Amino acid sequence: MNGNAIRVRGLRKSFGDVHALAGIDLDVRAGTVLGLLGHNGAGKTTLIRVLATVTPPTAGTAEVAGFDVSDQGLEVRRRIGLTGQFAALDEHLSGFANLVLIARLLGAGTGEARRRATELVEMFDLGDAARRRAGTYSGGMRRRIDLAASLVARPSVLFLDEPTTGLDPVGRQVLWDAVRKLVADGTTVLLTTQYLDEADQLADRIAVLDGGRVVAEGTAAELKATTGSRSLHITLAEGSEPGAAARALRDAGFSPVADGGNPRTVVVPVAEAADLVEVVRALVDGHTDIADLVFTEPTLDDVYMSLARPGTRAAADGGKSG
Amino acid sequence: MTGTVAERDAWRGGSTLGQLRTLTARQFRIVYGDRRVAFFSLLQPVIMLLLFSQVFGRMANPEVFPRGVRYIDYLAPALLVTTAIGSAQGAGLGLVRDMESGMVVRFRSLPVRLPLVLVARSLTDLVRVGLQMLAVLGCALLLLDFRPDGGAPGVLAAMLLSLVVAWSLIWVFLALGAWLRSIEVLASIGFLAVFPLMFASSAFVPLELLPRWLRIVATVNPLTYGVEASRELALGWGAGATAVAAVAASLGLTAVMAMVAVAGFRRPPGEGSTRSARRARLRAAARQQQDDEQQEAQAGQQPAALRDAPLDLAHRLPRQGPDEGVEGGPHQGARERGGKET
Ligand SMILES: Nc1ncnc2c1ncn2[C@@H]1O[C@H](COP(=O)(O)OP(=O)(O)OP(=O)(O)O)[C@@H](O)[C@H]1O
Ligand SMILES: [Mg+2]
After folding, report:
1. Which residues line ligand 1 (CB under 6 A)?
2. What is the Cα gyration radius of chain A?
3. A94 CB near a chain B CB, below 8 Å?
4. B-chain residues near A255 (CB < 8 A)
5. For A82-102, how does the pLDDT look when each residue is reduced to its tens digit (9 = 90+)?
6. What is the pLDDT of residue A278?
């Protein structure tokens, strides 16, 4: 497969006066994983629901697997799997029966449906528990059956809304392996997560959502490179004034901030490694002695903090494409 | 085992009949999965029958009933119809519970024909009503010496008629559930509807015995006609004209309510009416235009769009202002700036 499995243009979704999606443009190449990051209420779930045809958009267009979500909903539904943020299981049925139910609704025969359910129960390591009523499951078990349910159809596009929330480390690893295997087979995955390491691990590209808009999009490395939160942590020698050092750095055009813990440490955000020379020169010229100097690369957390924070609408307005 | 690419999307959604069968089977497991629930749902109308026949039967003056009709003969055909109200309400409540469980979100993301979810629900509850009716009839015939003049064919006809009436009531409550989407609201409506519908009718006493105002209510209460029709068939009164009218009215009601229910059920989860959704769409369109204009106006001053040129991001993030000292963590300053710019 080639081309884009998901193509979103000018997508908007409003609930009364709440603009959950305020104009989204997004492409996901077939066979890749897009990680969707964003604070609570950024619009991640809403975007997934619109793409999965659960909710119609207010304006704009979205294509999934080549079909329009508004006009060709049935064709879209034939090709997707959805694991919502909140488990969608029949509590009265066993986990196994839930899987069989979905396979039957998809058109599988009784035998096929049971075979597929067995396969998925093994894949997610559910064992005997799969025979118990879903209503009695623990949160993590419920999550796993829910995930299995979205895979019954072997969909070409998979939507996972915070799939590993509530999973233990083993469950998380199982899910990650499953996603990697699916992607190796050509499945396209759009997943939201609050765990930045998860996005780092799984996603080919990452989009940061804020206030219903995509404020940044790129590979993890690209995003890290763009935050400018590479920084130098400079610990001053005894006898040197942190205030004087900060003044010298500001005069040289840097923006030093205090380190939360150590009063003798000054943190200087730098754009590129070459700035290191400038910083050291400014400190030497300012007659400041350096005891220790550490250069830190940004993490995805820094990207997230600088972009997706409630109230940071400056970034959102600038990031909106016209 | 995740399947090969060749198997991908192989199942495109079952046939209408297949999906209906699967969904109905699921409903059955929910309704009858718990034997205790099934038992008590059967017990309930039987208790009504025993209580009413014993309590009111004692007081019933034979002169107010047609010659040769005892109270049990008068009561049992009516209970066939009134039994349906409780089950119909149960259908509405069950639907709302289904919608709240997230199962409906799952169905909406699958190639499932949504109306079938409602049809399955109505069929399941219809079967339940049918079993309740059999329990009422069995108890009346075996324990209470119910001897209807219509004989077995009459009683069978009365039961079929009651099932048709029940089906329409089920759809009324499915429509209420699909639109109101709240167990609390539906339960209180149910309480308000069930008792007046049952008692302000000819179900338990002849219309002539009711006080004038209640008689007027009972005359407009559609259930009165269902009850009368059931009696007509079971007791062999008249030619069945009331029954024909009742069946026609019930089928008409079913058709209308089914459409209302499906329209309500199709609305996306967690949203208001379609009219408010349309209004939201219009508002959003207006706002988009406004936004676009604003954006054009700002285009000169604003830095390049972020997502088009992610690598420019570093230059977009404003540096620390000269008056902001060494105080505060690295992110606090940025947040304050962000706030100011909005
Ligand atoms: N059915 C609804 N009615 C009204 N407002 C809604 C509805 N669904 C979502 N919203 C609003 O839309 C915004 C986006 O919500 P959404 O659930 O998409 O956020 P999210 O990014 O998934 O957040 P979280 O990380 O908490 O899951 C929020 O302000 C939310 O209150
Ligand atoms: Mg969410």
Report:
1. A 15, 18, 20, 38, 40-46, 85; B 270-271
2. 24
3. no
4. 319-321, 324, 333
5. 998 888 888 889 999 999 999
6. 86
